Amino acid sequence: MSYQVLARKWRPRTFHELVGQAHVQRALVNALDQGRLHHAYLFTGTRGVGKTTLARILAKCLNCTANGRGDEGITSTPCGQCDSCQAIDEGRFVDLIEVDAASRTKVEDTRELLDNVQYAPTQGRYKVYLIDEVHMLSTSSFNALLKTLEEPPPHVKFLLATTDPQKLPPTVLSRCLQFTLKHMPPERVVEHLTYVLGEEGVEFDESALWLLGKAAEGSMRDAMSLTDQAIAFGQGAVRHADVAAMLGTLDHRHILGLVEALADVDVQRLLAEVAELAEQGPDFAAVLDELSSMLHRLAVAQMVPDAVDNSHGDRDVILQLASRFTAEDIQLYYQIGIQGRGDMVHAPDLRSALEMTLLRMLAFRPQGVPKPPRTPLPLQREPSPREALSQETAPAKSLTIGEQQPTTPPVQEEPPLQEPPLQEPPPWTVDTQAGAPQPALKPEPQPKPVPEPEPIPEPEPVPEPEPVPEPETIPEPDPVPEPEPVPEPEPVPEPEPPRAVAAENASARLDNSQWLLCFDSLGLGGLTRNLAGNCLVESDDGALLTLRLDPSQEAMQAEVHQTRIERALKEQGMPRRVAFYVAELPSSVETPRQREERLTKERHAEAVELLNHDPNVQKLQQAFGAKLIESSVKPADGVR
Length: 640
What we know:
By secondary structure, this protein is α/β, with parallel strands linked by helices. 49% of the residues lie in helices and 8% in strands. It has five domains: 6-180, Rossmann fold; 186-247, Helicase, Ruva Protein, domain 3 (Orthogonal Bundle), CATH 1.10.8; 252-364, Zinc Finger, Delta Prime, domain 3 (Up-down Bundle); 512-587, DNA polymerase III, tau subunit, domain V (GMP Synthetase, Chain A, domain 3, 2-Layer Sandwich); 595-632. Strands 2-3-4-1-5 form a five-stranded parallel β-sheet, covered by helices on one side. A three-stranded mixed β-sheet has the order 8-9-10. Helix 6 links the parallel strand 3 (127-132) and strand 4. Helix 9 (206-215) packs parallel to helix 11, helix 13 (267-278) runs antiparallel to helix 17 and helix 16 (327-343) runs antiparallel to helix 17. The longest helix has 21 residues, at 592-612. It is extended, with a radius of gyration of 41 Å. It starts with 5 loop residues before the first helix and ends in a 16-residue tail after the last helix.
């Protein structure tokens, strides 16, 4: 017996043997079982997805004589043994008229075809017209077909197949039940090829089947044809190296080498891999495409490890590489790779375009961005809570910082009135830092060195007409103990508590309350802050800090985040190794992320309440019927 190619030998003969296209299979099987048949079906889809195969299976269901049920004798499970089924499988069934529209485009051919529609079937139950590539018919042919397609005789069924349904007239589309067949994903192709080769007794590599599945581009027929070619090329076996050589694809090891060089930030190795690739004369654009595809797999491996495929037999390697990158790095590298692929047309040569794209990935790594200073933030927050002293100390600060001349005249005027105001020089002691107590006892010699750059008589008359602030100084004798809070304006003591505690208790144990207090001072950002913010302190022995991580954040674990947290703790004087323990978090304890969200909501609610009680806002509401859009309210720094 002559050899039969795999595409024909393993062509499905029933709906249950059909691979993929479950949505079409379900609709047709239910229609056949319920006897709800349409007179015209249109199957659309790319090449090799099963359009003609479905049409032939449907023709057998309509004409099977062994398993026919009901008054019409149709079935959804043709036997494949009766004369009608065998004749259809062998292509000799008289009442199945297959027409290649690409070779019969004239209207005369269509009229000749339609002249025989009125006659009853010769051998089967239905006369089935299977018109392949129906979009190739001319406009006149479509017009001639319309009337018969809309109201055919009861014994006639039309099965149309096309790869380009957009070229069909709307009048034809409206007269048919349309089924769109999907592309075959590589996973489904590999699964089917594994079954076929197992039945054929052919040895194979799984990675080789993935190469064939991708090369088929969604067509199962193309995949079977390529498998035939691979078996012949590999002398009866399907091996990865043989398939790669047959298809002319890149050696996957070079792409892995590029990714490992990116992970190690090894520029020398990166350029060496490109040089080794150049010796094989590859398509550098395809190299960049493969690199972007691998970066996509790394991103999937970080978020959903179970979803990583074994397309090149490298699933374990991909999972290992994913832990060496941060999510920010992978997203940045992917974006740079995609943009570099589009810029290749403007490059002087493709190799330099590839090298520049790889170097750009390393040049713009997030690790190269300097960390913003963290100390100024708490320093700026300190003066905000002193609202009671702002009216009295604010003018004193502006005078002491800007000019010291106007501060001396009030001191000279106040002694004749009353002695207590003489205690105001403490602000001078804070600003001058040296010799401050001496000018406080002798206020007269201070104006002498100051007027050297400016004339003395000019500043003297200025304070004379300023008796107005004197009544403000009247309550000053009451807060005589105010010199005690003088160190409060110094911003240094407030940020010191977390650092001081960390420095003094470097080996002390951290608990959840201390973790909340020192979290902001760690200066973490990005995904690292998000990961740490969803953790609680499980245990701390002074050398190892175990953080309890919410299971919803388990996919974000990476070695780089652990290193960043350890480095931040060390900078705060709390050197520790960090480990993660994944478990459900107790609802009674608040994580830094939950605390931040709660404070944000409270500040927003407070800001909304302040605006609702603002007299100006109330006037606008009364006069114009204005409404406050709470979602647009942003708390200011002054709001808690």
